[in-house]
């Protein structure tokens, strides 16, 4: 191990070389001893690295399987590097890429939106992903324990934990809806193809649509045709008159709201539980538990399906979509730039929010997944690969969706902007309506909903892992034996029971409320505080040195400036723009009452409040044993704990060695070896 003495030896040895040349006998003898000492120390260090660091680095940089064993037997490591990359990709690429990005893109300037989207990707997206992956990998710890780097900010970790809990509860309900539709897709005739027993008066049939169209042109529907002539004797004809609503709903719309949801008249009326949906929600949690039965060892295998299958289905759907009439009109509409919209601040705000929805920084999942990496894994390359592939997937999914929307507009004889929709309306109303008009409709329905399930499971598995790992880090005794599985089952049962509220008749309203508030404003605030905590309090230079130890080379200072200045300022600006542009929550054109948005605000504040709450608790707790002032105590709590650092002692020693030339303020705390002495 190189110490300060070895550094002095290097300097002394170099300075002694001129005297050796001059032939000084005493200096020659002294320099020879120092040189031999230095060679011995370097040989010892090189031998240790060849048995440890270099083997680990070679194995983690390769694409082969793990051959050097686990670095962290207590927590475990990914079996293969590809397991981790696919887990991150499956976590980032979720339902939002398919049912939110295309709509946000066309609403904010279509092709022109890609400019602010890509800028925000490099300004806030990739830097935040790189920071979180590096933080989790360096400490081999979850979202709370990584804040041993600066204990005053451990509330950030708990805020991420709360956000992940909220997402776990409501996100699985979306998977439950998808499972319901997947099972229904195996029927001989798709149940939403025609108005059934569940239909309301507004449910449209082919005849109703023809009659209304005839009525708009002042005609009369007789003998299955529209008659405009006044000289016709209607008494001799079989005429049909429709006096119902002019605002018809498609059978798929009526099926979703009346049969699947049996939706109430507002959020103020929750109604009873739909037990079919409750059964699907239970099945969704069973699938999550199966994928996490043995932690990352099973989830790392599941992602090979959840990561690749959606791309296969999207490609199949794109090829099929391009064969439909009107599909090219939809794609052209999607890609045609509307440059004038770039002058609106909301467009840039939506771009940044979309990056956060898509890449999922500040949820805690990226830190958790990276915590199972080997120490010398290239986290920078992983951050770039995952971020770029996620963004490309969003754009590609837009091509698929708008090819289908173009076809819908052609069939319905309506403008594309009136057909385009997002969220549940796209997944459970618009697309099901499309497949009824295609040959082999059951096949396309099964493929689409199977794709949505895999997209949702990829995100849900990583989110549940975050919740599970955080609790295991706080209660290490649960890692032993069957207790780890018991804890996972407890998490699933609790989340399932709370999630039953979404299975009620008013559950969709509650789902929209959680979706709007659980991971929106709070994420932006958490990300801003996280950047400040790492870049300013812990120190961007110190963090770059941590990363240098892992990667072998020091990252560019561009990352430092991004973490210190660009990311926090951008996140603050987006938060302000989003708050200024606030609009009440609504679903199906029904605005929620003020008290409902008040409840939503409390949902957001629940996670945000964790940051000051745990800071105050820590200050009060430590003040009992601290004789200094509160200001001195806060400064003390902002410094890294003694336990902060890499998991393995040789990595800690190497980190201390890198600090040997730094000032005392920039050094990380000394670590204790097994004999209790400090190095």
How would you describe this structure to a colleague?
This protein is mostly helical and 679 residues long. Helices cover 66% and strands 2% of the residues. The protein contains 27 helices and 5 strands. It has a 3-stranded antiparallel β-sheet. β1 and β2 form a beta hairpin. α10 crosses α18. The longest helix is centred in the middle third of the chain and has 34 residues. The radius of gyration is 30 Å and the shape is elongated. The relative contact order is 0.16.
Secondary structure: elements and pairs:
Elements: H1 4-22, H2 25-51, H3 53-61, H4 81-92, H5 95-99, H6 101-107, H7 114-139, H8 154-184, H9 206-216, E1 220-222, E2 225-227, E3 239-240, H10 251-260, H11 275-291, H12 296-322, H13 327-335, H14 345-359, H15 365-370, H16 379-412, H17 416-419, H18 423-435, H19 441-474, H20 483-499, H21 507-517, H22 521-551, H23 557-580, E4 586-587, E5 590-591, H24 594-608, H25 610-623, H26 630-638, H27 649-658
Antiparallel strand pairs: 1-2, 1-3, 4-5
Class based on secondary structure composition and strand pairing: mainly alpha
Sketch the major β-sheet.
3 strands, antiparallel
| Chain-averaged pLDDT | 82
Q: Strand share of the residues?
A: under 5%
Radius of gyration: 30 Å
- Report strand order across the widest sheet: 2-1-3
Helical content class: 55-70%
Q: What general form does the structure show?
A: elongated
Q: What is the straight-line distance between the termini?
A: 10 Å
The total count of strands amounts to: 5
By DSSP (H or I, 4+ residues per run), the number of helices equals 27
């Amino acid at each position: 191990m190189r110490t300060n003495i070895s550094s002095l030896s290097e300097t002394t040895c170099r300075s002694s070389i001129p005297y050796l040349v001059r032939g000084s006998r005493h200096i020659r003898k002294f320099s020879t001893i120092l040189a031999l000492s230095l060679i011995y120390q370097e040989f010892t260090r090189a031998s240790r690295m060849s048995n440890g660091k270099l083997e680990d680095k070679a194995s983690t940089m390769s694409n082969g399987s793990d051959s050097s064993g686990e670095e962290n037997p207590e927590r475990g490591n990914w079996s293969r590097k590809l397991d981790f990359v696919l887990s991150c990709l499956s976590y980032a690429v979720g339902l939002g890429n398919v049912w939110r990005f295309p709509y946000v893109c066309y609403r904010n300037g279509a092709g022109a939106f890609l400019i602010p989207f890509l800028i925000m990707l490099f300004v806030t997206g990739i830097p935040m992903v790189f920071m979180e992956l590096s933080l989790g990998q360096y400490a081999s710890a979850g979202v709370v324990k990584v804040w041993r780097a600066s204990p005053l900010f451990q509330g950030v970790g708990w805020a991420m934990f709360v956000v992940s809990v909220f997402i776990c509860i409501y996100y699985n309900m979306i998977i439950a809806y998808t499972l319901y539709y997947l099972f229904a897709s195996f029927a001989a005739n798709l149940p939403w193809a025609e108005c059934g027993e569940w239909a309301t008066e507004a449910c449209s049939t082919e005849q109703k649509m023809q009659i209304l169209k005839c009525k708009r042109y002042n005609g009369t529907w007789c003998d299955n045709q529209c008659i405009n002539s006044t000289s016709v004797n209607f008494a001799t004809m079989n005429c049909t008159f429709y006096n119902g609503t002019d605002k018809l709903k498609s059978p798929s719309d009526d099926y979703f709201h009346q049969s699947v949801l049996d939706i109430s008249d507002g959020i103020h009326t929750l109604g009873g539980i739909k037990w079919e949906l409750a059964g699907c929600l239970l099945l969704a949690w069973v699938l999550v538990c199966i994928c996490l039965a043995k932690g990352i060892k099973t989830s790392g295998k599941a992602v090979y399906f959840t990561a690749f299958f959606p791309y296969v289905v999207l490609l199949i759907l794109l090829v099929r979509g391009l064969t439909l009439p009107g599909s090219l009109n939809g794609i052209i509409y999607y890609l045609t730039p509307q440059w004038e919209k770039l002058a609106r601040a909301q467009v840039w705000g939506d771009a940044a929010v979309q990056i956060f929805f898509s890449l999922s920084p500040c949820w805690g999942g990226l830190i958790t997944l990276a915590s199972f990496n080997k120490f010398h894994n290239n986290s920078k390359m992983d951050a770039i690969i995952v971020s770029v592939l996620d963004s490309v997937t969003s754009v590609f999914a837009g091509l698929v969706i708008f090819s289908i929307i173009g076809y819908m507009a052609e069939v319905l004889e309506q403008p594309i902007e009136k057909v385009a929709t997002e969220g549940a309306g796209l997944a459970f109303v618009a697309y099901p309506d499309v497949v009824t008009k295609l040959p082999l409709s059951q096949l396309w329905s099964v493929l689409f909903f199977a794709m949505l399930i895999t997209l949702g499971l990829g995100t849900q598995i990583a989110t549940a892992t975050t919740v599970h790992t955080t609790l295991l880090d706080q209660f290490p005794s649960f890692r032993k034996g069957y207790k780890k599985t018991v804890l996972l089952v407890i998490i699933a049962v609790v989340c399932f029971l709370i999630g039953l509220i979404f299975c009620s008749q008013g559950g969709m309203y509650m789902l929209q409320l959680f979706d709007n508030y659980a991971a929106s404003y709070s994420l932006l605030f958490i990300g801003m505080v996280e950047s400040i905590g790492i870049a300013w309090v812990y120190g961007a230079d110190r963090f770059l040195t941590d990363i240098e130890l892992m990667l072998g080379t020091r990252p560019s200072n561009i990352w430092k400036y991004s973490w210190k200045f660009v990311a926090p300022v951008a996140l603050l600006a987006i938060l302000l723009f989003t708050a200024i542009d606030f609009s009440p929550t609504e679903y199906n054109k029904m605005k929620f009452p003020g008290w409902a948005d008040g409840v939503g605000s409390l949902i957001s504040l629940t996670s945000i409040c964790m940051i000051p709450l745990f800071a105050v608790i820590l200050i009060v707790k430590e003040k009992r044993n601290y004789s200094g002032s509160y200001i001195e105590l806060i400064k003390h709590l902002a410094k890294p704990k003694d336990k902060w650092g890499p998991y393995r002692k040789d990595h800690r020693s190497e980190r201390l060695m890198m600090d040997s030339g730094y000032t005392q303020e920039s050094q990380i705390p000394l670590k204790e070896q097994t004999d209790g002495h400090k190095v």
